[in-house]
Description:
Layout: H1 2-19, H2 23-29, H3 34-49, H4 57-74, H5 79-82, H6 84-95, H7 102-118, H8 124-139, H9 151-161
Amino acid sequence: xxxxxxxxxxxxxxxxxxxxxxxxxxxxxxxxxxxxxxxxxxxxxxxxxxxxxxxxxxxxxxxxxxxxxxxxxxxxxxxxxxxxxxxxxxxxxxxxxxxxxxxxxxxxxxxxxxxxxxxxxxxxxxxxxxxxxxxxxxxxxxxxxxxxxxxxxxxxxxxxxxxxxxxxx
Length: 169
């Protein structure tokens, strides 16, 4: 009898908890057009940028969750659709991640950021900054490249050093 009651209660809790909506996902599912997406991303950008570099870790973590969920649902925002500020928001939040798993976050989102770079939604300098910081976190030292680099050469060099997969290598 106790086992049956325990099994029923466990099943109920499992079903209930799996159906509890995530408020971030709920908010994102309401974004039905580029203007809504632009407004959402610009708000995240303002919240994030306004507090940097002393951004409290809880706000940074919330912004990482917002951006990660956004990328999973919609992919990287197109600069032509949402504007420059909104388009740089996912890059900014991931680039400035200070969480303990910041290397995992950079590795996870690199393919999306790299595709956005190839599509012109991330600039050369943004990609270089992202990769240099990635290098610093991974190897514990600043990237020491040549003084004069073509941006594309510098990006390729950093991608190679970081052992990241791309079609550009």
